[in-house]
Specification:
Layout (H helix, E strand, L loop, with lengths): L3 E6 L3 H15 L5 E3 L4 H7 L5 H9 L2 E6 L14 H12 L3 E7 L12 H4 L3 E7 L7 E8 L5 E6 L4 H16 L4 E6 L5 H17 L4 E6 H10 L6 E4 L1 H12 L9 E5 L6 E5 L16 H13 L4 H16 L13 H13 L1
Parallel strand pairs: 1-2, 1-3, 3-12, 5-10, 8-9, 8-10
Antiparallel strand pairs: 4-5, 4-11, 6-7, 11-12
The structure holds adenosine-5'-triphosphate and magnesium ion.
């Protein structure tokens, strides 16, 4: 059985995934790896960004680690054959409904944030975003022309008890392994779906997670607090739309896109999908200067959340911190190391 399926994808994807391979060979040589073309690469080879075989391989692996997909080469391709369609198909096919986006500040990079050092130093919180429901998927949705000649557009926010409960459960479980605190963000003051969200989270908390500290927060206030005092948060759970916005805001607290991993989880025991939050970065692809840390930290999350190897995850996290402390910097962090040299710095720290 495959432990980790690698889908390097396009652009800088293969460059950063190569560094994950290097790190894995040292940290976890017993791990069973597999690798398949995905996105534009798969389209070029098979006419499909995600083949049925690749989806099957993803569903039967313990975890999937993706690089990035897309690029200018495929912009003319039919919408349903584009690399990005392959990613949506993979998420849907794997039924990963909880998106974990850490906002964390590595000590050696505390000055790289646009915020003051004291606001971000030691920052470590996790946004859990509902990923497969809400207003991005709700029906009806349409744009119609009115008799007046003007237009009317409709999107619909839909959430069921089951959808809210399963993502809240992920947040509570996470919090138990962290600082035991969950903030649930919604707009229950103006939205019925927000009211249901609050009710379901409150009920689940009372029934199964009363040991965890729960606070409800309105999403607009959450946005303000993330910028003002982000260290008050441990785990924040929220819907698809608010999570999209809040997680991007939180990501910017800590500097480069090249440092940030993510995970998308489904039901307990089902494989998780891990990927750096950055894209295929066509502007730097092929130059060997991409920062591989986001991909390496995505691997760290896979070890922790899908492969039951938190011992190795801890070692890897410490090695990344150590490499940064030793001054290892790719150009996005103001340094001059190549992608491969940054990977080497992590390997060196692992071996020290
Ligand atoms: P997508 O639509 O796929 O998210 P995007 O254009 O929004 O792509 P990225 O591809 O992530 O965003 O690139 C945004 C900018 O950040 C680019 O200038 C890119 O070079 C830079 N960037 C992204 N990832 C990295 C990385 N790992 N290392 C260094 N720079 C990066
Ligand atoms: Mg983007």
């Amino acid at each position: 059985m495959t432990d980790l399926l690698l889908l390097p994808g396009d652009g800088i994807g293969p460059e950063v995934i190569a560094e994950v391979r290097k790190v894995a060979a040292v940290l976890a040589p017993d791990l069973a790896l597999d690798e398949r073309p995905f996105g534009g690469k798969s389209y070029d080879l098979h006419g499909e960004p995600l083949t049925a075989e690749t989806l099957e391989a993803a569903k039967s692996a313990k975890a999937v680690l993706m690089g990035a997909v897309g690029g200018p080469k495929w912009t003319g391709v039919a919408r349903d054959k584009r690399p990005e369609a392959g990613l949506l198909g993979l998420r849907a096919g794997m039924n990963v409904f909880a998106n974990l986006r850490p906002a964390l500040c590595f000590q050696p990079l505390a000055d790289a944030s646009s915020l003051k050092r004291e606001v971000v130093e030691g920052l470590d919180f996790m946004i859990v975003r509902e990923l497969t429901g809400g207003i991005y998927f709700g029906e009806p949705r349409f744009i119609e022309t009115l008799p007046s000649g003007g237009k009317r557009a409709v999107d619909t926010q839909v959430y069921t008890t089951a959808e809210i409960e399963r993502v809240a459960r992920v947040a509570f479980e996470l919090a138990r392994g962290r600082r035991n605190k969950v903030h649930s963000a919604e707009k229950s003051n103006v939205m019925d779906s927000g009211l249901l969200w609050r009710e379901v989270v409150t009920d689940l908390h009372k029934r199964e997670y009363s040991d965890v500290q729960l606070e409800h927060i309105l999403a607009d206030n959450a946005a303000m607090q993330i910028v003002k005092n982000p260290k008050q948060f441990d785990v924040m759970v929220t819907d698809n739309l608010f999570g999209d916005i809040l997680s991007d805001a939180a990501a910017q607290l800590t500097g480069s896109l090249g440092m940030l991993p993510s995970a998308a989880l489904g039901e307990p025991g089902a494989p998780g999908l891990y990927e750096p939050i950055h894209g295929s970065a066509p502007d730097i692809a092929g130059k060997g200067v991409a920062n591989p840390m986001a991909a390496i930290l995505s691997f760290e999350m896979a070890l922790r959340w899908s492969l039951s190897r938190s011992d190795l995850a801890d070692r890897l996290f410490a090695a990344v911190d150590k490499a940064l402390a030793s001054g290892a910097r790719t150009p996005d962090l103001g340094g001059a190391l190549t992608t491969a040299q940054m990977g080497d710095a992590v390997v060196t720290a692992l071996q020290a």
